[in-house]
Structure formats: C-alpha cells, structure tokens
Amino acid sequence: MVAGRLAATERRLHTRSGREVLLQVWVEPGNEDRTDHAMQSLVRAIRWDEERFGLELDLDRFMIVAVGDFNMGAMENKGLNIFNTKYVFANPRIATDQDFAAIESVVGHEYFHNWTGNRVTCRDWFQLTLKEGLTVFRDQEFSADMLAARSTTAAAAASARAVKRIEDVRVLRAAQFPEDAGPMAHPIRPDSYQEINNFYTVTVYEKGAEVIRMLQTLVGRDGFRRGMDLYFVRHDGRAVTCDDFVAAIADANGVALGQFGRWYSQAGTPRLRASGRHDAQARRYLLAIEQSCPPSPGQPDKAPFHVPLALGLVGPDGSDRELRVFEERDGVLRQVAARTEASAHGRTVVLDVTGPRHLFVFEDVDAAPIPSLARNFSAPVTVEFDYDEAQLAFLAAHDSDPFNRWEAAQRLATDAVLGIVGGADAADRSAPLAAVLGRLLEDEALDPAFRDQLFVLPSEGFIAEQLAVVDPVALRDARNALRRCVAGALAKRWAPAWAALSDPGPWSPEPAAAGRRALKNTVLAWWVETQAPEAIAAAAAQFQRADNMTDRAGALHALLRTAAREREAALARFGRDFADEPLVLDKWFSMQATMHRHAGDPPVLGRVRALLGHPAFSARNPNRVRALVGSFCNGNLAEFHAADGSGYAFWREQVLAVDAINPQVAARLARALDRWSKFTPGRQAAMRAVLEEVAAHESLSADVREIVGKALAS
Ligand code: ASP
Ligand code: ZN
Fold first, then answer.
1. Which of 179, 204, 389, 487 lies in disulfide reach of 529, CB 3.0 to 4.6 Å?
2. Burial letters for 641-660: b for 16+ Cβ neighbours within 10 Å, e otherwise?
3. How far is C-alpha 708 from the geometric centre of its chain's CA atoms?
4. 110 given a catalytic annotation
C-alpha cells in the first residue's frame, strides 16, 4: 500500500486476448506532465512480453507510483510497482537521452517481473538471480528490440543492438569484474550472506543476465522460448530454484546442462587464453584455448566452466572465412557439431569450451586469418590473445561483428594506456588508436550511436583491473595523456564533425536523433580536450542555447575538460537554473564529484565538502547521497585515492554518518574500499586503517559490518 497526496495519469489498453486493462502512473500533483514517457514505455513493455514470450498482463489494473526517496531503482510489488522518481520523470528539459533509455529499461524490468518474479518466485533468498538475472536479461532484450525496431535497415538494426550490448558489457566490466575479483566475490547464487540487501549486486543482476544469455546462445532463440514456456507450465504459481529454471531449458531442448550449472556455484571471472597458428601447407588454422579461473573467497580451486565461445575468422580481404571446424582429442581429429550463424556479411560458429584445454582445427583456410573471439561478448569471461596493433586496427575496420569492432578499438586504447603507465611515449602509443578513430569518425555506414561508443575510452576502473599495482594518479595521467594525444592528432576533424551533427530541427526522442546527439556531445568533449579557444566557445554556446538536457549536460560535461573560466560560469548557471529540480541537481552534484583536476585546480574533495552544505543536499535522501558522496568515492579514482589519505577520511566520516540513517545506502558506499589490496603500499595501509576504524565502531549496522569485515579478511 502507498498512501499520500497523489495524482494519476491513465491509459486504457486491450491485451492480446482482448481484455481491457487500466494503466496508471501515480505522482505527486504537479508532476503529471513528466509521466508520458514512462506510460509509453509501459505500453511497449506489455506488447513486447506478449510478442516475444507470449506473456500477458494478468490484472485489470496495473499501477506505477513514483517517490522521491527510495533506496533502489524500483520494486516490482504486484500490481503496484514502486519507483524512484529517477526512473519515471522525463521531459526533454530535465532528462537526458540516457535517462529516457534508463526509464524504458526499468519500467520494462519491473513489468517483466510480473511473470519472472511474481507469478513464479524464489524459493529462498539464495535464488535471487532466478528472478533478477532472468529479468535483467529480459529488459536488455526489450531495450535492444526497441532500438532495432526503429532502425530502417538490417545493418542499422545490428549496430543498434550492438550499442545496447556494448553499454551492458561496459557496466559488467567496470563493476562486476572487479566485484568478482575482490572480497565480496560470490557466485550468482550465493551460498551464504549476512545481510541479503548486500547481495543485490552486479553479480546477481548483470552476471546473472549473462548466464541466462549464454543459455539462449546454447539452445538458440527458439529453443530458449521453448524452455521459458516449459518453465511456466511447470512452475506457474510456485516458489522455485535456479536449478528448476535450467532444467526447463535443458528438458525443452533435450540438451545436458549439468556442467553449465557451475556458473551458479562458482565465483570469479574465467579467463580464456587463446593462441593461433596458420599452417599454409595444410591450409589449416589451429586455435588453442586454455581456460582457468582465479581463486575467490572460499573457493581456492575451480572446475572448468561450460563457455559458449562465438567466433569467426576474418580473412585478409576483411570478410569472414567459411568455417569447417574439427577438434583434436588424443591425436584424433573429430568434426565439431557446433552451431554456425550466417548473417548478412558474417559467419560465426559457437564452440563449446568445456575443458581446461582445447585445440580447434579449421580446415581449408588459405591465408592467415585474424580470429574474432567471443563475438557479441558470448560469455562473461576475459579473452587473452596476443593481437598486434595492425591486427586490432584491421578488426576495428572490418570485423563483421559490430561488438568486436568496438572491442578491437577498446583493446588498442587499453594497451596504449598500459604502455604509457609503463613509461612508453604517449604520442607513439596513441598513434594507432588515433588512426583507427580518424577513419571511423565520419563513416556514414555506421550508426552514429555506434560510432559514439568507439570514441568512449575504457574506464579507469576497467584499466585498473589490468594492473598488478594501481597508482590511480599515474593511471589517470596516462589515460588523459592518451586522450590529449588523440584529440591533438585529430584536431582539425572535431569542429566540422560537431557542426555536421548539430541538428537544426526540433528535438526528437527517437533513437536516430539520440544517437546523433550522443556522438555530437562526445565529439565536443574531444574537441575541448585540445583546449582550443574555439572549442571552449562552442561548448559555452551550446550550453547557452540548448533546448534539451542532453545537449545542455553534454556541453557542461565538455567544459569540465578545461580549467577555463567558462567552466565555472556554466556550473553556476546550471545550479541556479535547476535549483528546483532535485533530479537535475543530482547530475550537477555528480558531475562535480567526478571532475578531474586541471592545472591550478584545488583538490576536488574541497568542492565536494562545500556541496554537502548546499541547500539542496540532504544526507537523508538516497539519490542525493549517491549523486554526491557515492560519485566521489566510487567514480573519481584519482581524487578519492589522493595520496594524503583525505579521501579515506571522508569515506569513514560519510559511511558512519549515513549508516546511522540508512544502512543499505551506507553499505554501498562502504564498498568503495573493496579493492584496497590492489593499490600502492601507502594507500593500502591508509585504507586498512580506516576500514579498521569503521569496523571497531560500536553501533554499526549488520549491512556495513559485513562489507568492512569481508574487506579486512581478504
Ligand atoms: N527487486 C527490485 C528490482 O530488481 C529491487 C528491490 O528489491 O527493490 O527491480
Ligand atoms: Zn529486478
């Protein structure tokens, strides 16, 4: 039950079987004009679940209620989904294109829980991923289908879907991979917990969704649908387990998924080490794969996983080779009965990697190919292969799999940053990436949203995981040096690209228009990186005249790449203009909390502390705490880990203060020190010290106690 002074916007709809249903979105009066997008998203979600999974709304009335103070994004209470306003309120003045997309995805997510979560629910808390992994997978597919549905050609649809995939994989790598490598590592079905609220994690949700996606990859899209149908026939109205779900997929398709079950019981990110050799005489390509998985708390040794490895071989002309695959076992070659997928211009095979070691042999391969591995990110693993720069540049230009084109460019960027951290010359190391990006910037064959993804460098958090010892200041310097060099190398290209992408017409929420805006704003940030006065003037002008939040926030974001006075002027104006819009001020808090420091700037922590005193800030509101304190501790690596330990003192103070009010939010914040043992020795000692101080605190919540206890035990 929700009680309050609330007003509803309504819509009536006929479900597929012809029943009339009433849809309502309830908000505090005065906000009715920002519910339209949520309502449209709900209608699309209802239609999509009917079409893709044959699942219909089972109620006469379905309600969403939006509240400003909420710990989670939303909650799927039957018939009355409770939402954080962040995932309901939207109009072009206050919401970015990313907000629009996030609303569609969360509205879909909660609606899809009506079947996967409510009609069939979890037998116990350990099974949380039964509903969350599956429902995240469903919302990801929903968003991808919505993007693709509005594309006009098959190629555009493929690259639209790839954009969604890239965004999801970015989150997985930036947040879940570190979790899986740290003190809180747990299988998607944890086998113990002190506080279940701490297990609403990226592992249970996002890795859980990857596990469901692998099931779909293994049995195909139709096979997956058959499995879902059987799952509801067997379990509708009951509380069941993850094993029941896997059994339904296996039984509906007559496949054995016993080994696959290890994804539910073993933590850690598996590694596939691949190496290839072309035998010109025998016209063969040999691909050796070794799999391993690092130890995690309570699990020193791992048994091999069942990994679906989708791959293609890219020939010297840039097109995919025909694939005739054999596997060598005990000196005997056997043909592999793997699923192959032929798309408009690609050929992909899905190999089952089940053992610690495999040798695959591809027959009739004339010229040395370049392997394109784990296409579309076919498994939540890391793939190691010694590509050289020329091979990565080739894949970025030609791979038929758009995800792996992006992946090749990301590898080039990651390798460059790692090289610069190790002392290599930044200009030298950035040249190959600059050449690749330069070629793709104006490639009209590629969706602008996809090109935008190519220009977003891998996050500091992701790169940090590749280092044995992290000096976050050196890492940021190296990554920024790469940015500056690439920006400089393409200096003449930014202004015309930005101008060409500027839409003169009225704002439209359509994906095509949103994709252009995304690329335009990314280009603007690269241009400002050059510190050219024209770039700063262009950003300031865009900020002034923007008629939508994407362009306004995009311009402000670009201005944060400079110490020019336009930056502070724009920040001040934004704060004034949106003083009455808490969700917009969250963007403002978060942008400042994640700022980099430029020549002459004082430490960012000073700004964050000042903002704690801003009239719009409140430690009692979860969104505000996440926007300001959470963004600084979890999203500003170099400033938070300042060598003087000031960030850690701030962390201790904030964790304790928030814990007294809201243990769930405090526990999220506490996790900023999870990876303490990855850092330089001085930082490690300083982090241990504050962890111990918090652990010694008498009235600590069970939530925070579990997090700091596990961090200290690692
Ligand atoms: N079950 C919710 C969700 O994932 C989160 C919550 O428990 O509030 O949608
Ligand atoms: Zn959920």
1. 487
2. bbeebbbbebbbebbbebbe
3. 25
4. yes
CB distance 560 to 480 below 8 Å: no
- Contact criterion met (CB below 8 Å) for 426 and 474: no
Q: Which residues contact 28 (CB under 8 A, 6 or more apart)?
A: 4, 5, 6, 7, 68
Give tens-digit pLDDT for 304-347.
Answer: 999 999 999 999 999 999 999 999 999 999 999 877 877 766 89
**Confidence check: pLDDT of 525 > 70:** yes
For 72-129, the pLDDT digits (tens) are: 999 999 999 999 999 999 999 999 999 999 999 999 999 999 999 999 999 999 999 9
Which amino acid, 220?
G
Three-state SS for 325?
A: strand
Rounded Cα distance between 616 and 137, Å, is: 36
Asked if 279 and 286 touch (Cβ cutoff 8 Å), the reply is yes
Strands 307-314, 370-373: pairing kind: antiparallel
Residue 536, burial from CB neighbour count under 10 angstroms (0-12, 13-18, 19+): buried
Q: What is the pLDDT of residue 444?
A: 87
Q: Where are the strands (E) in 434-479, listed by range?
A: none
Q: Which residues line ligand 1 (CB under 6 A)?
A: 72, 74-76, 109-110, 132
Give CA–CA dist 471/95, Å, rounded. Answer: 36
Q: How far does the centroid of ligand 2 lie from the alpha carbon of residue 129, in Å?
A: 9
For residue 337, give the 3-state DSSP assignment. Answer: coil
Ligand 1 pocket check: which of 71, 76, 142 to mutate, most ligand atoms within 8 Å of Cβ? 76
Spatial contact of 557 and 525, defined as CB atoms under 8 Å apart: yes
- Alpha helices by DSSP H, 466-581: 472-489, 491-501, 511-529, 533-545, 549-559, 565-577
Residue 127 Cα to ligand 1 middle (Å): 14
Contacts of 501 (CB under 8 A, 6+ apart): 448, 516, 517, 519, 520, 523
Strands 347-353 and 339-342 turn out to be antiparallel
Q: Which of 76, 104, 110, 132 is catalytic?
A: 110
**For residues 399 and 405, what is the distance between their CA atoms, to the nearest angstrom?**
6
